[in-house]
Amino acid sequence: MTTSAAPAETLDDLRARHRRDYDPYAAWSIQEHMDEIAERRDVLPISYSARGNGCWVLTRYDDISSVLRRNNRGFVSFPNEPDGINAMGSEIQQIPIETDGALHKQFRQLLDPYFSPKRVEALTDQLTGWANRLIDDWVEDGECDFVDGFALPFPGATVLTIMGWPAEDLHRMNHWASTLMHGVVGGTAEETAAARAVAHGELRDYWFAMIAERRASGHLDDVTSAAIEAEIDGERLTDTQLFDLFLLMMAAGLDTVQSVLCQSMVYLAAHPEKWDAMFATPESLEPAIEELLRWCAPAVPTRNVVHEEVEVAGLVLPKGERVHFPLAAANRDPAYYPDPDEVIFDRAAKPHLAFGLGTHRCVGLHLARLELKIAFTQLRRRLPSFALHPDYTPREHLGLAWGVDNVRLTFVPGARETEGSR
């Protein structure tokens, strides 16, 4: 007597067995989202969400770091969106984050020199002066809109300078970046799609006009000129490729450090003893910044299976499946970080994933660390203590990068230190 083998599990069966829907744009607080991810980690560490066009959701450090290390070895980064759609509005693909292999390597060789430790360190005096001019604009008032008064313009102006873009366009670019990355917070999918379409149209007009102007104006020592003059695969970049590069540099440059600053200041306002601990000794600040980076971790990548099949978190996924994972999920894994939701400045040093891992590790990580060090140092010197304004409530958002808006601070008024402020 013979018995027939059990039929192989189909992809539909695998998805159904691990089904737990996930909304990357949910109108939750970040901590509520992290609580939901923690529950997933305990009961279904890899799950399939049928929301939108479907994706697999990872929650554990080891699984997330494994996928990040396998870029171009089973996974590619295009499209870098959980629904597999072009939410950011690139013409072809965001450069360099959605490129892989030899093409990605060439784009990183173009960009990396402008964000090297030596080049970034040379910005120290400029960044310190800029931080203090921004603080001067509101320090006498005893209160401030921290987003518009510091967290946006401080890193934003630096990125615009490196890129060679007009400083007066900072707020317009931030509006575009916010719409593309976060959608309409609290709005419907249709409202988000409509807002993104408008932002994309405005961005396209803006940058294609700038590209034409910069092609005609000659060389400047900035990334825009370097990109216009660069050769990739032996050819100059097209206007479309330049647009896709600038789109990514705008979004990453304006959103990430802004998010870490805002999340951190909201947390520190509620935990003033931590604000003191950051500066307890000259050696205290850098590990505190790394811990805040671990805890905040705004980025939310997606990877796509391109081999016939790959193993992820104990499952075999076929070609075409998407894998989505907030980097904060890895950074809050209790297997690596005891009491992961707590901010512990003296916790044992372990590498966090706030800047990613592998070939797509953030090109601007050295700049981000310097910006945070200077920002916190100058804010501490000028604002020894502060609190959240009682008349305003910070608004957290999820999306393609997590953050918080409407951060209003109060503090004892201080004196301006630079001429020409306000």
Question: Could you write a compact summary of the structure shown?
Answer:
Belongs to the cytochrome P450 family. This protein has helices at 11-17, 30-43, 61-69, 101-111, 117-121, 124-136, 146-151, 153-163, 170-182, 189-217, 223-229, 239-270, 272-277, 285-296, 327-331, 365-382; strands spanning 46-49, 55-58, 75-76, 143-145, 231-232, 235-236, 302-305, 309-312, 315-318, 322-324, 387-388, 395-397, 403-405, 408-410.
Describe this protein with a few key phrases.
422 residues, alpha+beta, five-stranded mixed beta sheet, three-stranded antiparallel beta sheet, 10% strand, metal-binding
Distance between the termini: 91 Å
What percent of residues are in strands? 5-15%
Radius of gyration: 22 Å
- What is the N-to-C succession of helices and strands? HHEEHEHHHEHHHHHEEHHHEEEEHHEEEE
Name the structural class: alpha+beta
Give the integer mean of the pLDDT values.
93
Instruction: Please identify the oligomeric state.
Output: single chain
What's the story with the biggest beta sheet? Answer: 5 strands, mixed
The CATH superfamily bears the name Cytochrome P450
CATH fold assignment: Cytochrome p450
Instruction: Quickly name the level 1 CATH class.
Output: Mainly Alpha
Write out the strand line-up for the largest beta sheet, numbering strands in chain order. Answer: 1-2-10-7-3
Rough outline: globular
Number of domains: 1
Q: What is the number of E strands?
A: 14
Count of helical regions: 16
The percent of residues in helical segments reads: 40-55%
- Going by CATH, the architecture would be Orthogonal Bundle
